[in-house]
Design brief:
The structure is a single chain. The chain is mainly β. It is 11% helix and 41% strand. The strands form 6 sheets. It has a 5-stranded mixed β-sheet with strand order 1-22-21-20-19. The protein has a 4-stranded antiparallel β-sheet with strand order 2-25-24-23. Strands 3-4-5-6 form a 4-stranded antiparallel β-sheet, with no helix packed on it. The chain binds 2-acetamido-2-deoxy-beta-D-glucopyranose (NAG) (3 copies). The site of one 2-acetamido-2-deoxy-beta-D-glucopyranose has 4 residues, from loops.
């Protein structure tokens, strides 16, 4: 199914490629946001989107042609919502971020301004988890070991222990303003100076990433697409980079002149971008079948990367 492969390639350019030389540049402009693809229209800016990759969304019954997954998002000043079946439901007024394992569990954790919650899918509500009351900016769950980590608004990074009743500061992750994990549990973070670092899962050492611009106006880490092993997309100014676990980085060729306010590319086969108070869903068929000029450029940019992406996806036994 070539179509699925091509979508996977969208933000992956370079990750799976044997040859890192990329001459093509794709500039995503305002035209990328097609009205047909809007799945939610809010009153305020959308600041975060998360698609859990565990069994709550992806299991043997998942229909890859007609995606209907739980998509969590934060609307500024309104709170955390879940979008499912085209219906948006408020989950938690003060929810900020969402994390899940990548395994067969269906558990989803929510980081809020007053601690950690779990998501009750039947009722679409949040239930308090543990006793911590930290003001959480990011929450992470490790792949395989299901350990929970939180980054607070005070820029302190903790491992959460004893069912959410205790926490231990991770002292070599300092002054962080954003944290993201790759599937091999390497931790990527940016600090308040907008420098990006990687903390190796294997030996716990922290290294500053080389090969990214020195004084960016804007930086952001993205949760990686599921077919990537070690590495995450990183936005510096308007350019998208791949940051690798070995603390190197390379420009992907992707330039965002009209920057989304939030992204979720982790599901790989379906991508979500927020822009100007709206959430857009890009599934394979949408891009392949679109006659819009922007989508034609997207297709030609990613076409030559499709074989490598397919190979990477097959290694991870993602159905294509
Ligand atoms: C989770 O980690 C294991 C190794 O512990 C790895 O084999 C697996 O591919 C990882 N999961 C994903 C989704 O990458
Ligand atoms: C770092 O990792 C990337 C991706 O695996 C690889 O392409 C690159 O050659 C590595 N660089 C070094 C210096 O090891
Ligand atoms: C996309 O295009 C294919 C081939 O032209 C067609 O079979 C399919 O119905 C189209 N899908 C949508 C959702 O438009």
């Amino acid at each position: 199914m070539k179509s699925l492969i091509i979508l996977s390639a969208l933000l992956l350019a370079g990750f799976a490629a044997a040859d890192p030389i990329k001459t093509d540049i794709l500039t995503l402009t305002e035209d990328f946001y097609l009205e047909d693809l809007v799945v939610y229209t809010g009153e305020n800016e959308i600041t975060n989107i998360v698609v859990p990759l565990n069994s709550i969304n992806f299991n043997d019954h998942t229909d890859l042609e007609n995606f209907d997954v739980y998509v969590f998002f934060v609307e500024a000043d309104k709170g955390l919502y879940v979008l499912k079946n085209n219906v948006a439901t408020k989950v938690l007024d003060n929810g900020k971020d969402v994390a899940s394992s990548m395994d067969d569990s269906t558990q989803v954790f929510i980081g809020a301004t007053d601690g950690i919650y779990t998501f009750n899918a039947e009722k679409k509500t949040a239930e308090k988890y543990g006793t911590l009351t930290d003001n959480i900016k990011n929450i992470l769950v490790t792949n395989g070991t299901d350990e929970i980590f939180i980054l607070t608004e005070d820029k302190v990074f903790y491992k959460v222990t004893e069912e959410g009743t205790k926490k231990e500061e991770i002292t070599n992750v300092k002054d962080a303003i954003q944290v993201v994990l790759d599937p091999l549990n390497n931790l990527y973070f940016v600090d308040s100076k907008k420098h990006v670092y990687v903390k190796s899962f294997e030996d716990g050492t922290v290294r500053k990433v080389k090969g990214v611009p020195a004084n960016p106006k804007f930086v952001e880490l993205l949760r990686p697409p599921a077919i990537v092993d070690d590495g995450v997309p990183f936005i510096s100014g308007k350019k998208v980079y791949d940051v690798h676990a070995n603390a190197t980085a390379e420009f992907t060729g992707l330039v965002l002149t009209s920057k989304p306010s939030a992204y979720a590319v982790e599901a790989t086969l379906v991508l979500y971008f927020a822009h100007d108070k709206k959430i857009y869903q890009y599934s394979v068929v949408d891009i392949i079948n679109s006659t819009a000029e922007m989508m034609g450029q997207v297709k030609s940019f990613i076409e030559d990367k499709a074989p490598q992406v397919k190979e990477a996806a097959q290694k991870k036994s993602i159905r294509l």
